[in-house]
Amino acid sequence: MNILIRAFVARALPVMLLLATLIPGAMAQYPKPGSGPQQGYFFVGGRYVSTAAGPMMERQMYVEYRYPAKIAQRYPIVMIHGAAQTGTNFTGTPDGRKGWAEFFVDKGYAVYVIDQPTRGRSPWLDAVGPLIRFPANQVEQRFTAAANFNLWPQAKLHTQWPGEGPLKGMRGDPVFDQFYSSQVQYIGVNAIVEELNRDAGAALLDKIGPAIIMTHSQTGAIGWVIGNARPKLVRAIVAAEPTGPPFANAVFDSARARPYGLTETPLAYDPPISHPSQLKPVMQAEADGPNLSRCYTQAEPARKLSNLQNIPIVILAAESSYHAVYDHCTAKYLTQAGVNTTFVRLEDAGIKGNGHMMMIEKNNLDIADLIDKWIVKTVQ
After folding, report:
1. Selected catalytic residue, list 35, 122, 181, 217
2. What is the pLDDT of residues 239-290, one digit of tens each?
3. Is 306 contained in some domain?
4. pTM
5. What is the CATH number of the domain that holds 341?
6. Which long-range contacts (CB under 8 A, 24 or more apart) does 210-213 make?
7. Residue 306 annotated among the catalytic residues of the structure
């Protein structure tokens, strides 16, 4: 018998080693939720490619896990940051307060915070795509000192960015400088970003099981493609000011975008489509209210987003953000496509003065509490 076992192992070991090479992390273990408070990290996805320097890995995604002492919520939350950001958006604030990750762990959720593939602690190779960065003045104008520039009608309402004095939200203010220090390069082609995060996000869900996906800004589209790829594993999507609006940009330019309505890459529609030209966008004759964009929806009869129909979605729009102009259009599009969608303007819930970076602003925990209440009420 020992001879037979040794012969089997001799034959099987090369195959096992090959699988470990082809599927990075496939044989790696990590603590599961429910065994007490824990914190650590692992990587998912990735593949080896040949380079001039030798074999290297690309497309892997860093995942940080945080578990409470006692799991009180059925599903974990996966937090996915937006463009030029990393997971630090959720693990704290630039002025040293509690972040959303810690808040939700305190509420009894297992939390997974990622750095997108090619971002932060997820390494990148030059061949994946072109890299760009946000200049400091763009961050000031759009995120931290919007009221100083009034580039859109609601900008003057921005009051929640942390900091004090005449430089609040501007270069030279310590809080702004901390935040801008966290801004990193990112791939400037949205279709590539969607593909990378779809595959890595699917690999993460295959590893941890069903979860709630939380997205912000650029990763709104990533939430839709992960839900499309793993509809049985995505239990809900919390979209804080997701990429939008459908079919075209707004506020800063009117270029056509997102040919699949919500995304640059394919989504499953019913009846099916083989090319995005089969979707027929129609613009509203009049906007839904003052200082709002006119929305594109589908020409009737509208196709349904078949893989998202059983996933409850909440979209949050901040009072003073440029997304306040058009996030309702994304909610309208999802609803028309048969998706259970809740649209919340934070000011209607009594949460005022926020900009686009709501998760690190002064009242960030009020917004987190609103999200927690929606999850508890909605996600079964």
Report:
1. 217
2. 999 999 999 999 999 899 999 999 999 999 999 999 999 999 999 999 999 9
3. yes
4. 0.92
5. 3.40.50.1820
6. 210/75, 210/234, 210/235, 211/75, 211/76, 211/77, 211/78, 211/112, 211/235, 212/75, 212/76, 212/77, 212/78, 212/236, 212/237, 212/238, 212/375, 212/379, 213/77, 213/78, 213/80, 213/237, 213/238
7. no
